[in-house]
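Good day; I would like, with your permission, to put a structural problem before you. What I wish to show you is a protein chain and, alongside it, a tokenised description of its three-dimensional fold. Thank you for your consideration; the sequence and its tokens are set out here:
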Amino acid sequence: MDQTHQPIPENRQPLLQRTLSEWNVLATLGGPILIAQLAQMGNGVIDTVMAGHASAEDLAGVGIGSSLWMPLFLLFMGTLSALQPIISGFRGARTFSQIMPVTWQGIYIAGAGALIMILLLTSVHPVLEVLRLESGTARITQGYLRAFAWGIPALLLITALRGLTDGLGRTQVIMAFSMLGMLINLPLNYIFIYGKLGLPAMGGIGCGWATSISNGIAAIGLLIYLNRSRAFRRFNLLAGWLKPDLPTIRYILRLGIPIGFTIFVEASMFSVIALFLAPLGPVVVAGHQIALNVVSVVFMLPLSLGMALTLRVSFLVGARAPASARLLSRSALILAAAIALLFASLLFIFKAPIAALYTSDPAVQAVTLSLLMYAAVFQIADVIQITCISALRGYKDTRWPMAIMLFSFWGLGLPMGHTLTFTDLVVPAMGAAGFWVGITAGLVSAGVLLGVRLFFLFARAAAHAPRCAQSADHGRDRS
């Protein structure tokens, strides 16, 4: 396997040159990841816009359905993301024979996850009754989820195979198939939602069918590519079928479940905040959602950088280049901080045009402007924590980060935000801004604690290195 996408570091180079070389590798890996993330986000935008043009009821049904399947998907996506550092580590160690066995066990985990998601999402009637939805909206939500469920196996199969492609440094593969899925989803939405080519108009339910079909086509295309392309043909994905191996599955889950749970905890926290803010009225909720959407879009770049960092650190650890892994992790924090300061400055300077882009309502604009001030500081803390946790995942350290994120978000950020938003215990009730202060404090806590954990791993690796060297010298003496 060539080293084009993840070269072996040259330690004789000057420090600055080594650092810039590693940043170039991050850009090579992270650029396609960023485009893939934006393409996946684009699918959500397409569904929202096209369902909204059908009717407000269709938009509500699709929105509620998405809010039900997305947390479950994030849970399994995070769990399967353990495949990327595992396979990248194998590639760094040049133990290629171990790549397909772990890939197949990931596919089995994806199959089990698909079954769980299908069972849950096709049995949501009790949940919808609790939400007291109007009958029309409930009908669309159920229809959307039942149609969407047909594409869940393909969606999770792509997620599992991403472990193989990204782990081998070929991040452009998923970029290409994510864009393919988006390009297919657009015309299929038009056909199914509005009833074209002789089909009946399905409204929001058509979004589910369009997503399922586009996921299926993308998954089939990805399988064909992996079996025919020169880069992946040697792995014999389909011909090299392997039966389930419980020890390997347990190993993947031991690393992956903490990642999935961490992502689920973060996503669920923002859902809970939205519910808490509902009594403050639609203007406050709208302003909060706009600020959150802006931060989410901006976050795509540091998130992609973090995913590339996980791949590179795990590769370097597997290649037995711990000094380069430490250098990269430390320098990535500097790079991430610079990016965060740039984006925070842009949010602060252009907050008014950004608010006007989203809404023409002066009241909503006012709330959005006030929250974007906090979002600028939030952005800095968020970028630092995602960089630290991404480096830790490269070291296959996932349990402590999960505990840190759980404490920082649910033990500190959410209670503080609720107190500042609704009570006068600390300062006069701040409204929605209180939650932004609270979650920023939680992110600062997470960044500090994750940073301490990362540097603890550095110290432990440095202490271990001399013992390894002595052991190697002793072995040479004996020989």
User: Anything to note?
Assistant: The CA atoms of residues 69 and 121 lie 7 Å apart.
